[in-house]
Each structure stands twice: as C-alpha cells, then as structure tokens.
Amino acid sequence: MLLSDFSYELPENLIAQVPSQKRDMSRMMVLDKSAKTIEHRHFFDIVDYFDENDLLVLNNTKVIPSRLYAKKDTGALIEIFLVREVKKDIWISLVKPSKRVKSGMLLNISQELDIEILEKDDDKWFVKLIYEGNIFEILDKVGNIPLPPYIERKMLNEEYKNLDFERYQTVYAEKEGAVAAPTAGLHFTKDILKRLKIKGVNYCFVTLNVGLGTFKPVKCENILEHKMDSESFEITPQTAAMINEAIANGKNITAVGTTTVRTLETVMNKYGKIIPVNDSSELFIYPGYEFKIVNKLITNFHLPKSTLLMLVSAFAGKDYVFKAYDEAIKNSYRFYSYGDCMLIR
Q1: 330 within 8 A of 11, measured Cβ to Cβ
Q2: What's the sign of the alpha-carbon dihedral 341, 1, 213, 60?
Q3: Taking the model in full, what pTM does it have?
C-alpha cells in the first residue's frame, strides 16, 4: 500500500485558520457506509443521528499551554515547545532556533519559570523546568497554546491568544497532558451534550494524551514501514463498565475522534475486551484493518498522506472517503483542526 494513494490536492484557502463563530455551527458531512450516501448538515444537527441505542466515547485530555518564549541577554527570542515529561520536571522539547542554545544554558520565561537546557537528542532537547508551585497553573499564565503548524500565528500574537486558549480545547477537557487537541471534540457544546442526555444517549470518557506524532508525516512510500509514536492513555473503571454494558446490550459505540478509536481498538487488540487500564498505543490503522469495537465515528477532515486519513479510509473505505473529500472541497468545507467535521455511520 503506497503513500501516494492517500494524497489529494487541497486549496490553501480551505485550511481553517480560526474556529467557526460558535462551536456547533461548524458544518458536518454525514456519511452512511451502507448506502454510500453523503448529506450536508451542521454540527448542531448531531442529536438527530443518535438515540438510546448509542454510546458516545470522547477523549477528555486537556491541551497544556506548552509553547514558551524566552529572551536571551542578546535580545534573541527562543521558542521552547514542551513535548512530553519524561520524569519529574524533565521534558523532551523542541527548541527554535536550536543553534542558539547549548547545554547548561538557563533561559528565563517569567518570574515564575526558568528553563535549563540539558542535552540534545536527535532533533529534540531535554530541558529542566525550574519553578515553585503547580507547573500547570504556571503554564496557564505564561504559556501559549501549541497550535499545529498549518495554523499561522506570529510569535506572541496577542490578537488570537484568548481565542485559541478557549477554542483549541474541548468543553469537557479535564486531564492535562496533550500538546494537540482531539479536534473532533471541539464541535461539542455543553448544550449539545445535555440534549443528547435528554434523548437517552449516554457518553463516557477515555484519556489519550495527544502528542506531536499526530502531525508526524509518513515519509516511507510503503506505508507498512511507518512506525507510530507512542501515546499514553487511560480507561477508568467507570468508562470500562459503561462500554461493556453498552456492548452487552447491543448498542452502537461511537468514537469521537481518531484518538478515541486508537484507544479503544488498542485495548481490544491487547486484552480482548475493554478493561480499566493505563497503557500506551502505537496502533497504526490503515485499510484492511478489522475494527473490533467502534461502529460510528465523528472526525475532522485530515491532511493528505496522514495516518489519520488512513484510519478514516480503513473505517469507511478509501474510495468512499476520497469521494467525500472531493465533495467537501467542491462545497468549500473548512479543513483540519479548526475546520468542519464528518459523521460516519
């Protein structure tokens, strides 16, 4: 299976740079896998497609403001992007420009936070965070939301800072640790969740801390040679019980986002059932994969040649998905993290 099979041309003006005016005003393409039909709706119509025979599973990870800026004595601006904590206060990070720093250098972020540059590992740096108090509270004050590279923002752009803090985060985000949002969930509002509950639709949460691997390009032409980055996840006893009860009662399991798909399918592959667990996923889903638990999927429109597009193609069929993408482009849908979404049922 070739990487070029998952390429498509997207006009640059369809890459959403800001979110829709309201979360649930985003457009929603509805795909029926059996009938191979395509409908054009809005996300506020989502409640029409679910009833008491459905369980929604959402990812409640919380994006941390992990993009930091420091000024050297020379006045040069250094960007530190915290990627993952490997042990207490030691983080793997991206530093730009990398050539401006060296081991042992101390960078001041604010009165509350300094960063010591430790050592380089390939294209990343190990850094130590020096602070007093709660690091997540400090990052909320001094950090910036780590937007994906296709959303263009200037360094320290105050114009969009508050908008991104609010909208590049789901309304149910709870557990800090992600450096990218589970974007399918960005369309949900508290009112939508309430309306689903009133209709008898249950929902529960898993936690998968989305890492930079979500943007990692596939570089090998034979996609079977691609290796996924490891991402940690958690399934609580309550969530495991709700999912197993839903399965026992023959209900549909709807994954909100590809991160939820990989969490659920990883657990089914490893354990044969949903259990309470803290684990990690390196699962690469591409066409030919047999889904073991997920029946429906809510997801955004993804980058060409991405593992996310391959997962969606596996779920609904590559030809059908690419037909839908062509339709989305013709109808000026908005793509990627701040863009529109599709419901595949």
Answers
A1: no
A2: positive
A3: 0.94
Contacting residues for 281 by C-beta, under 8 A, at least 6 apart? 208, 228, 230, 231, 233, 262, 263, 266
Using 50 as the pLDDT threshold, list the residues of the chain that sit under it: none
* Cα-trace Rg, the chain: 20
Q: Which residues pair with 130 in a beta bridge?
A: 114
Q: Which of 193, 216, 150, 169 shows the shortest CA–CA distance to 66?
A: 169
pLDDT tens figures, 312-343: 999 999 999 999 999 999 999 999 999 999 99
Taking phi over 0 as left and psi of -120 to 50 as alpha, with beta for the rest, 165 belongs to alpha
How many CB atoms are located within 10 Å of the residue 31 CB? 24
The letter for the amino acid at 101 is: V
Q: Is 177 exposed, middle or buried (0-12, 13-18, 19+ CB in 10 A)?
A: buried
- C-alpha–C-alpha distance, residues 94 and 126, integer Å: 9
State the greatest distance between any 2 C-alpha atoms of the chain, in Å, as a whole number. 65
Rounded (5°) CA angle 256-144-281: 40
The pair of structure tokens assigned to 332 is: 């000026």
